[in-house]
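Example 9 (inverse folding). The structure is encoded as follows.
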């Protein structure tokens, strides 16, 4: 089975390299639906997988100056406490395997549909942030700070329970909240924030015993070359073509999980 995990890691890494999103939203459902991995183990393993794969992306964006560290800090103020509280809640509830599977599968399916909608509505949400004359709407600094921290809290909860949300959802909300930031800085900021969030949530799952380290190694072995290849192919494919394909895929997967 190890080579199939590695092949799956390559496939997901390739999609991530092309689109910039899809790590958690494809890897966790793939592990659950195709390989029959327990949802909790799939989420925990995928969180550490995401932290390690996004670390390189965060470093690259930081070197190019495309990370707004103030926004990262505000997001983390909301997401890291939310991740800790979510892990403590899972530990306190001590759900049996059946109920834990129901909880994680339910949250995962909702997160997938939200991610798909975020991808489809991305251009429209960007337009909402602009007036007819082309200038941008901006929240008052006080409200912007609170909205960013709240966004982090929502992402922290979703990511900890489902491993989905740190990619497309984070990017779309940041595009709406910070319309003056370039797309490159939005993406870099989102990736930089995802590293500590997925690492903390992944370590929390490791404490709960829901991380499969052999599976993690097999996925990484395939994903790293997949991301490299996808990033080179992606520049030749228009985003308007990729976005609806990925969104449709996520809606189908989310529906399948809801019915399973």
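The amino acid assigned to each position is listed next.
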């Amino acid at each position: 089975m190890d080579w199939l995990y590695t092949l799956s890691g390559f496939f997901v890494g390739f999609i991530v390299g092309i689109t910039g999103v899809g790590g958690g939203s494809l890897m966790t459902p793939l592990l659950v639906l195709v390989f029959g991995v327990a949802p909790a183990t799939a989420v925990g393993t995928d969180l550490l997988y995401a932290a390690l794969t996004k670390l390189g992306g965060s470093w690259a964006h930081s070197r190019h100056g495309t990370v707004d560290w103030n926004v990262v800090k505000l997001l983390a103020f909301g997401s890291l406490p939310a991740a800790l509280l979510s892990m403590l809640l899972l530990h306190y509830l001590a759900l049996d395997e059946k109920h834990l599977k129901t909880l994680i599968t339910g949250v995962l399916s909702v997160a997938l549909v939200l991610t798909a909608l975020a991808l489809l509505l991305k251009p429209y949400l960007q337009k909402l942030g602009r007036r007819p004359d082309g200038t941008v709407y901006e929240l008052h600094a006080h409200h912007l700070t609170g909205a960013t921290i709240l966004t982090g809290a929502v992402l922290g909860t979703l990511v900890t329970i489902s491993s989905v949300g740190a990619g497309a959802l984070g990017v779309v909300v940041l595009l709406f909240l910070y319309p003056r930031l370039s797309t490159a800085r939005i993406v870099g900021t989102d990736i930089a924030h995802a590293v500590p969030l997925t690492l903390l949530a992944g370590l929390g799952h490791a404490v709960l015993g829901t991380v499969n380290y052999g599976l993690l190694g097999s996925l990484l072995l395939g994903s790293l070359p997949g991301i490299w290849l996808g990033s080179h192919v992606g520049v030749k494919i228009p985003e308007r073509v990729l976005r609806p394909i990925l969104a449709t895929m996520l809606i189908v997967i989310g529906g399948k999980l809801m019915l399973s």
